[in-house]
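Continuing from the previous page of notes. For each protein in this section, the sequence appears first, followed by its structure tokens. Read the first protein now.
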Amino acid sequence: MGDQEGRVAIVTGAASGIGRATSEILTQRGASVLAVDANAEALGWTDGAAAVISKVGDVTSEADNAAMVEAALEHFGRLDVLVLNAGVASVGTIEGQTLESFDQVVEVNLRGSVLGLRAAIPALAESGDAAVVMTASVSGLGGDPGMWAYNAAKGGVVNLVRAAAVDLGHRDIRVNGVCPGPTRTAMTAIIENAAPEMFEAMRRRLPLQRWGEASEVAEVIAFLASPAASFVTGVLVPVDGGVSASTGQFLPPERVA
């Protein structure tokens, strides 16, 4: 499984959840990883981890994005993979949610992805086999009640993937995305703990009848970032237990014990 042997990756939002799982899988398969997150304490998992160094950074800062690329080049000498995974969610009605909250969701999820990509393009273009993977969401493929800001921001990421793939293919930079469905992460733990009825209702709507694990999303990211996906660009892969395959009009069959 050494399909990342010798490759260098940056992973944002790497302190926990999908970002941490992706960092771990990439290093297990031979890559060196710069793990980036705004939460310095949560990046403590990287202490002593083989082939991983951490860097505290804010993805909404142009300077911090430039600094993470410089750090990867300084420590590892090259950059082959960029995983733009950092994200935040919010809940509120269109007329009730503050524009400040909306701006933050767009800043982190969409503008942060743009800044990260722009900062990394020159280094990625030197790779000869570069891969960018952005974490979008099934919420970027449709609408959810009370999540209009998140839907809009992740919908922007979906089309950013497509547009960037078209613009950067001639420079041997592939750009793809994953669209996770209900996945157990630090972001979704509040649903499981504070709103168990909602957690169960979301599970019931999944054809696979269970929430996903961060490692399952990370496996797809690792594939898209690998040479095995050398002719794949501009795609968004739902990693969602089948929820986006449904019209939503009827519940799928319940799991048989």
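Done with the first. The second protein uses the same format. Note its length before scrolling.
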Amino acid sequence: MLLTIDVGNTHTVLGLFDGEDIVEHWRISTDARRTADELAVLLQGLMGMHPLLGDELGDGIDGIAICATVPSVLHELREVTRRYYGDVPAVLVEPGVKTGVPILTDNPKEVGADRIINAVAAVELFGGPAIVVDFGTATTFDAVSARGEYVGGVIAPGIEISVEALGVKGAQLRKIEVARPRSVIGKNTVEAMQAGIVYGFAGQVDGVVGRMARELADDPDDVTVIATGGLAPMVLGESSVIDEHEPWLTLVGLRLVYERNVSRM
């Protein structure tokens, strides 16, 4: 089985693939202070509960693919693969790793690995032109051309960041649960804040995607818009431009990149 690990700024998502099928997944908090040994214990605890894997760390794992936006965590995971999975092929997404997607930006090395991995999966699953909207710590919009090239994107504050900022900076506001309110016009402070978050972000998605699609293709209707990320379900029902919801897009991209690189190792 293939273990895929997507390390974001707030959460880390792990997926277990049997061939092309994801058979298990976990979401944990990202903690830059965790050491390689702590991460190994965490992995053993999660995977030790799966019936298709053995009791010992590494039993049943045939390959590992990792991407991380937090350099310190990537460093520790590199040590995990060396010390605890020494005989298992591992692909860590970084400059020099073959993705199959040309990066047409001013400085390709500064583009987040997860954004490139999302583009890889988008091209494979839906083709181009496409726009990937990833609802994470930041809300990112990534454009893929009709030829399968990563051409750039947009980065905006994420939903949780915005909720936290309102609670910290608003003297009479507090941090709230991100949930859909009864109506757009809130009847109390909590509902008013929820409406601002849910409908505000839906409007942001529609506006940004519309502008990007007009730049990306002669006919904006030809652009496939894919939503992913843990908070995507909050906006799906309110946005008018999202065509596909693929919650495991990054994990699928990691599987594809692993397959494109493992034969070269």
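What the second structure shows: Residues 189-216 form the longest helix (28 residues). The chain has a mean pLDDT of 90. We return to this in next week's lecture.
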